[in-house]
Amino acid sequence: MSSSLSDSNNNIPSASSDELQFHMDDDQITIETSAAEKSKASEQQDDTADEIWRNIEHNRVRFPMNRDDHREGLKRATTFKYLNPTGAEGVEVLIPTTDHDSSKQSAPASPMGTDGGGGGRDGESSDKSGRGSLDNKTILKPSPSVGTSLLNLVTEATGAKSNGTESGSSSMMDEAWERLRSSFVYFQKKPVGTLAALDPSAEALNYNQVFVRDFVPTALACLMRVPDPEPEIVKNFLLKTLHLQGWKKTIDNFTLGEGVMPASFKVMYDSYQEKDVLKADFGGSAIGRVAPVDSGFWWIILLRSYTKCTGDYTLSERPEVQKGMKLILNLCLSDGFDTFPTLLCADGCSMIDRRMGIYGYPIEIQALFFFALRCAQQMLKQDSDSNRLIERIERRITALSYHIRNYYWLDFTQLNNIYRYKTEEYSHTAVNKFNVIPESIPDWVFDFMPLRGGYFIGNVSPARMDFRWFLIGNCIAILSSLATLAQATAIMDLVEERWEDLIGEMPLKIAYPALEGYQWRIVTGCDPKNIRWSYHNGGSWPVLLWLLTAACIKAGRPQIAKRAIELVEQRLSKDGWPEYYDGKKGRYIGKQARKYQTWSISGYLVAKLMIENPSNLAMISLEEDKKIEKPRLTRSASWSCSR
Ligand code: GLC
Asked: What is the pTM of this model?
C-alpha cells in the first residue's frame, strides 16, 4: 500500500470513499474484505436519518402493539418495574415521562405490561422523542436508603424541561453536548462513532479511535436526547462495526474467530485513492494483544437499545445483522472442556484492558454475556436455522444465572460460611465446590463486608475467589436481571454502607480495593499505569456514573445516583472531563488521564437523562425472567427476604 494515510476523523470531507482492503504493519492485523462485502457496506451506508424514521413509521404498522411474540421485550416502554427491596413481587411503576416538548407529545399512555410500550415510537410521526404521556398513574415505593421516596424524583423529573435545563447543571449539559458532538467521527460524511478523547495536550496514542465499549454511553445519550434523538449515528455505528466483524482477522499467522468484534476502529484518509478508509484493531495493536470479549456483547446490547428506542426492527432483522449476532453467540456457546457455564477469559479482555488479575471468569464479562444472551433471545428471528441456537441460549441463561447467583454472591453470612469451609471435599456433595482454602480470604474483606449488603465478587475458579468489588459487573447484573431482586437491593445497600470506599469524592471506583506492594508486582507485572488507587487498579471513572444511575433506578434507589451525580457536577467540567481520578477517595485527576474523554462526557449525559426521565431505563434494562430458577440456598439475611 503506497498511498499515504492520514487521520480523517472530524469533519474532513472526502472526495470519494470506500472500504479499504487494508494491510497493517507487522505489528497489526491483516484485514481483507471481499468485493461483495464492500458493496454491501456501501449499500448499508445509504441509510439516512429520514430512512430510519420511515422504517420506524413502517414498523408501527407492521408490528401492532399487541403482538405477542419473542419481541415482547423490545417494545418501547413507558412502564417498568422497580425492584422491591422486601423481595416480594416487583412493584409496577408507571413513570410519567418528562414533558420535554409537550407540543409534540401525543403518545398514548398504554400500560402494556411491565416492559411493554407501543412497539417503538408510538407518538405521531412528528414526535421523534417518542416519550410517553404524562397522565400515567404513579405507584411508588419509598427508597429505604435515603428516607425519601421515588415520588420526589419523579416529581422533579416531571418538572424537568429538557437536557437538564431546569437545573443549575444546564450549562454543564450544554457543554457536554457540544463536546460530544465535536468528538463525532465521520465516514463518507456520515457519523459512525466518537473519538475516545479529544485532548489537545496529550499524545493521541489510540485515543483517536472509536472504541466499541466507549461508544455505548454516547449511543445511549444520542437515543435519549430530547427533543431530537439521534439514532442515525447509532445505526451507522452498528453497521460499520458489523462490517468490520466480517473481515478476516489474522495476528501472527493466527486467525481469530469469525465473530470477534473490534476493540476499536479508526477512519483514515487515503490521499492516493482519495477516500476514507477504515483501520480496525481486534486486539493486535492493543496492550497485551488481547481480543476484546466485551465488544461483541456490547454490540448486541446496543442493537437492542436501538431497536427498543426506535421500534425500527428492520435493522435487527436484516440477514447480515442476524448473522453477525449468531457469529458472536457461536463464539461463546461452542462446546469445549468447560465444566462451568461461565466464559473463560484472558486478562485485559474488557474495559480493564491491561493485566489486572481478571483472567479466568471475570464478573464483568459474565454479566455482559448474560445480558447479551437475553437481548439476543428477543432479537433472533425464529426459523429452522435459529431454533437450535435459541434453545442453546435458553439453556445457557439458566445455567449461567444459577452459577453466578450461587457461587459469585458474597454477603456477611456467605463470607462466614466460606471462612468456616472444610477443604478437600471430594464428590458432588461438596459444599466447598471449588476447594477454596479459607486462608486465601484477604483480610480486607472481613472489615469491608457490612452486615447489610452484598455483591457479586470478581471471579470464581478452582481454589480461587477474587473478592474484589467490580462496579461494572454488579451494575450489569442488576440491569440484565441476573441479580435477583434481593441481590440488587443488597448491592445498593453495600454501595450506601461503603460510600466512602466505592464512591468517594469523585465517583466511581472501578474496582475495590487496589492491589498494592508485592501483590501489585505479581498480579499486574509491575504495571506503572496501574499503581495502587490509580487507573484500573482502584481508580475512579466518571463514565461509570451512567451504569450506577441505571442500576439505582432499576433497583428503586435513584437517590443514591443523585448523590453521585451531585458530586460529579462539582468537579467534572471544571477538571476538563478527565478519563479517571486517582487516590483512595478519587480526589486527584488521574496521573495519565486524558482530558475531554468522550465517555466521561456521555456517561454524565446519560446519567442526567435517565434521572430526569426514568423511563429511559427501559432502553438498557431487562425485566426479570420468571422462568429462571431462583437460587436454592439461603446464604444470608439479604437473600432470605426474597423467600
Ligand atoms: C483505555 C481503557 C479502555 C478504553 C480506552 C479508550 O484503554 O482501559 O477501557 O476503552 O482507554 O477510552
From this structure: 0.80
